[in-house]
Amino acid sequence: MKFAVIVFPGSNCDLDMYHAIKDELGEEAEYVWHDTKDLSGYDGILLPGGFSYGDYLRAGAIARFSGVMEEVRKAAEDGKPVLGICNGFQILTEAGLLPGMLMRNKNLKFTCGTVSLKVENAHTLFTNEYKEGEEIRIPVAHGEGNYYCDDATYQHLQDNNQIVFTYAEDFNGSRNNIAGIINERGNVLGMMPHPERAVSDLIGGTDGLPLFRSIVKQWRESHVSHA
Amino acid sequence: MKKVKVYVTLRESVLDPQGSAVMGSLHKMGYNEVQDVRIGKYLELVIGDSERDVDALVDELCNRMLANTVIEDYRYEIEEVVSQ
Description:
The complex is a heterodimer. Chain A is α/β, with parallel strands linked by helices. Chain A is 25% helix and 25% strand. Chain A is built from 5 helices and 11 strands, in the order E-H-E-E-H-E-H-E-E-E-E-H-E-E-E-H. Chain A has a 9-stranded mixed beta sheet with strand order 2-1-3-4-11-10-9-6-7, sandwiched between helices. In chain A, strands 5-8 form a two-stranded antiparallel ribbon. Chain B has helices at 17-28, 54-66, and strands at 2-10, 40-47, 72-80. Chain B has 2 helices and 3 strands; from the N terminus they run βαβαβ. Chain B is elongated and about 50 Å long. In chain B, strands 2-1-3 form a 3-stranded antiparallel beta sheet, with helices on one face. The chains are: A alpha/beta, B alpha+beta. Chains A and B meet through loops of A and helix 1 of B.
């Protein structure tokens, strides 16, 4: 399976993402510059963390107009897996590919560390290697991870099982502790914590690996059955 | 030429942690008559000659990029700029 790691000016978790795919997962990955006009050669799209365009104006607000985003939208419409982590999540909400928005953390702090997450939905193409309700430990590092949406949107997310990860306890003020959500179709996931930083015991844990394995597993299954 | 002053603020229904922190500090300083503080962004746009209606243009800019209407409101003032 071949992944595109989109590189925006200001991305800084692109190397971690590349390393996770290439070295820990053993799949193909390529860095793709933000003005690329063709993503048709890739099976999965990864939007890494960082501070795209300095996050001037709002987190993700400028990156959302990058040339590559039209291609990301197409990939999402084609049903390809699109994963946005941290700044990638912020870009996906700004682009309207996921509902809601990420605000400044409630306590105004940039928070760094490892948190416990609950897998709320283990029936997505990103989480089928986890158990429903499983608690996992994943690193976080963000100042604007406070997930906000209005009541109607929240109800919609709940009714469609689109809430994929929650923080085990209130971490940044996010609505109902939401840490990650998926689109209605189930192929676009955005999350603030960093699974790509939890892929080896050497760096403190491997709880992020099943997420990437899930994507590859689902992809292999669908490509074998269609062959 | 026109100068447009755009003010982007969090919607009333959204908690403003920056504003709350500043208000808390003002209260500690003894300014207890301050009842609320909201922090927003101020942008100045200089718009050159255009066939487009300036209000429609600025609304479009605000809705597409300058404000995220999920959590933010915006308002603006338009001034004529006399070129020197």
